């Protein structure tokens, strides 16, 4: 049984994908996402920054961005200047789902490979930009690596925190949970890992096989005492399923 640790909103889809792939999985939500109160003021602030490039780090950020567009269109239908400005924007999306959502509104959308902060930085590097204005649409407190690296390389960076991750008082499970049935834990971020270590016994967590989405997340988990860690090639459900099958195959060799 695979225990999938993801934000609550993403659990159901991930569990369905695993079951369709023939893998037994249980979803566990330790974090939920709540939109920031001022999220509807995003577009004026974003356009005032005059970005050359917009990085969107999650499907939640993409959804909230698109919601603000719908809100502006409902309040001020002409918004001709904003339409003209938005049509020329270049976006980098952290994953396939985020890219698909953005593509419903914009033509110039690049999907980062791999689907993590390192992939975003590699994508920006390939663009050969110099001294560009880079806006980052993200959750509060996340993705510091992108800002720090770009700022060090001379880019003007502005973060827009569209939502906040909140720890749930009790885990949300997609089905009945029994620790003894879990052979492998899948985690998609350092925040999720920290939440797990705040709730579950560290001794149990450190005995489990893990799948994480990047070397950076692996290093974070290793520092907490886990040893049996496999790194996937990305954070999408297809990447995680491929990693789960590799782990499953190696366990039966």
Automatic annotation (TrEMBL):
Keywords: Lyase, Porphyrin biosynthesis
Source taxon at top rank: Bacteria
CDD domains: HemD
Catalytic activity: hydroxymethylbilane = uroporphyrinogen III + H2O
The EC number(s) this enzyme carries: 4.2.1.75
InterPro entries linked to this entry: 4pyrrol_syn_uPrphyn_synt_sf, 4pyrrol_synth_uPrphyn_synth, UROS/Hem4
Listed GO biological process terms: protoporphyrinogen IX biosynthetic process; uroporphyrinogen III biosynthetic process
Pathway(s) this gene product operates in, as recorded in its UniProt entry: Porphyrin-containing compound metabolism; protoporphyrin-IX biosynthesis; coproporphyrinogen-III from 5-aminolevulinate: step 3/4
Molecular functions per Gene Ontology: uroporphyrinogen-III synthase activity
Sequence ranges assigned to domain Tetrapyrrole biosynthesis uroporphyrinogen III synthase in this UniProt record: 20-242
Function: Catalyzes cyclization of the linear tetrapyrrole, hydroxymethylbilane, to the macrocyclic uroporphyrinogen III.
Family, similarity comment: Belongs to the uroporphyrinogen-III synthase family.
Protein name (Swiss-Prot/TrEMBL): Uroporphyrinogen-III synthase
The organism of origin for this protein: Brumicola pallidula DSM 14239 = ACAM 615
């Amino acid at each position: 049984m695979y225990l999938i640790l993801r934000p609550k909103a993403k659990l159901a889809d991930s569990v369905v994908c695993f079951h369709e792939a023939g893998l037994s999985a249980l979803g566990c939500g330790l974090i939920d996402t709540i939109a920031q109160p001022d999220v509807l003021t995003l577009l004026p602030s974003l356009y005032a920054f005059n970005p050359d490039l917009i990085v969107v780090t999650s499907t939640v950020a993409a959804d909230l961005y698109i919601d603000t567009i719908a809100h502006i269109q409902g309040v001020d239908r002409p918004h001709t200047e904003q339409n003209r400005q938005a049509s020329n924007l270049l976006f980098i999306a952290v994953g396939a789902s985020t890219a698909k959502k953005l593509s419903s509104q914009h033509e110039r959308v690049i999907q980062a490979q791999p689907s993590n902060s390192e992939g975003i930085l590699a994508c920006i590097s390939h663009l050969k930009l110099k001294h560009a204005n880079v806006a980052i649409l993200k959750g509060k407190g996340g993705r510091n690596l992108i800002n720090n690296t770009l700022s060090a390389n001379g880019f003007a960076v502005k973060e827009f925190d569209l939502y906040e991750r909140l720890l749930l008082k009790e885990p949300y499970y997609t089905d009945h949970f029994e620790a003894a049935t879990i052979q492998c834990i899948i985690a998609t971020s350092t925040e999720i890992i920290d939440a797990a270590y705040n709730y579950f016994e560290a001794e149990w967590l450190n005995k489990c096989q893990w799948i994480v989405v990047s070397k950076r997340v692996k290093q974070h988990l290793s520092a907490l005492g886990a040893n049996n860690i496999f790194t996937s090639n990305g954070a999408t459900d297809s990447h995680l399923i491929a990693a789960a099958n590799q782990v499953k195959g190696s366990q039966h060799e």
